[in-house]
């Protein structure tokens, strides 16, 4: 079996040719990718449900727009917290909130400054460390080799993520914004019309 190169921490940007309505114009942050499969969350699917409606203690830490995002079609009844912890500097003086590796307790680094939040932990443990927090209902998942097959067919573009992608204040425009910042032909795809039949 060939070894899979990890795409953890990268973005999957849906190509206009992707026919699955769950992923139309989706931007997926990959939280895990190896030979056993892939798991990520869709960053640009806000729901009308406020974070305070389902996870009241976390609501003050959630960034604008302060709603739950649909992370994907799998396990919609479960919640995932993704947060950015800016910089590598220590927390405020006297704080004991860092684990042995220097990361805040209740937060597990995924890639760079982006990590997963333990939503069972007391929010006050992380309040001083988090730069931004998003709550996702459900996730996007692929079995072994499934994502690689979709990549071969051109369903997704793989690009680098930026910490600001997780907390974009205008998530509905994230698909175009991520494509527009690419230094390749992908920047042109950002202008692809929502309905090509109207051209």
Structure description:
The protein is an alpha+beta fold. It has a single domain, classed as VC0467-like (3-Layer(aba) Sandwich). Helix content is about 15%, strand content about 30%. The protein contains six helices and ten strands, in the order ββββαββββαβαβααα. It has helices spanning about 50-55, 125, 145-150, 165, 175-180, 185-190, and strands at about 10-15, 25-35, 35-40, 45-50, 65-70, 75-85, 105-110, 115, 130-140, 155-160. Strands 1, 2, 3, 4, 5, 6, 7, 8, 9 and 10 form a ten-stranded mixed β-sheet that branches. A hairpin with a 2-residue loop joins strand 7 (about 105-110) and strand 8. The longest helix has 7 residues, at about 145-150. It starts with 10 loop residues before the first strand and ends in a 10-residue tail after the last helix.
**Biggest beta-sheet profile:** 10 strands, mixed
Order of helices and strands: EEEEHEEEEHEHEHHH
Annotation, overall tally of beta strands = 10
Q: Give the CATH architecture.
A: 3-Layer(aba) Sandwich
Give the domain tally. 1
What's the helix count? 6
CATH class: Alpha Beta
Structural Rg: 17 Å
**Overall average residue pLDDT:** 87
Bin the strand percentage.
25-35%
The coarse overall form would be globular
Beginning-to-end CA distance, first to last residue: 45 Å
Share in helix? 10-25%
CATH topology: VC0467-like
CATH superfamily: VC0467-like
Provide the structure class.
alpha+beta
Low-confidence stretches: 88-100
């Amino acid at each position: 079996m060939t070894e899979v190169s990890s795409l953890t921490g990268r973005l999957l940007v849906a190509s206009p040719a992707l026919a699955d309505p769950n992923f139309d114009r989706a931007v997926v942050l990959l939280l895990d990718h190896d030979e056993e499969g892939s798991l990520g969350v869709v960053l640009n699917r806000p729901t009308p449900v406020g974070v305070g409606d389902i996870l009241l203690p976390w609501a003050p830490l959630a960034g604008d727009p302060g709603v739950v995002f649909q992370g994907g079609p799998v396990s919609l009844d479960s919640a995932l917290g993704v947060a950015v912890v800016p910089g590598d500097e220590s927390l405020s003086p006297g704080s004991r909130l860092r684990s042995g590796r220097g990361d805040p307790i209740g937060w597990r680094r995924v890639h760079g400054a982006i990590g997963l939040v333990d939503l069972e932990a007391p929010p006050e443990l992380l309040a001083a460390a988090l730069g931004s927090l998003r709550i996702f209902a459900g996730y996007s998942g692929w079995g072994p080799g499934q994502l690689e097959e979709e990549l071969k067919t051109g369903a997704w573009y793989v690009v680098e993520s930026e910490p600001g992608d997780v907390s974009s204040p205008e998530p509905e425009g994230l698909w175009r914004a991520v494509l527009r910042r690419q230094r390749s032909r992908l920047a042109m795809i950002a202008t692809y019309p929502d309905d090509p039949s109207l051209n």
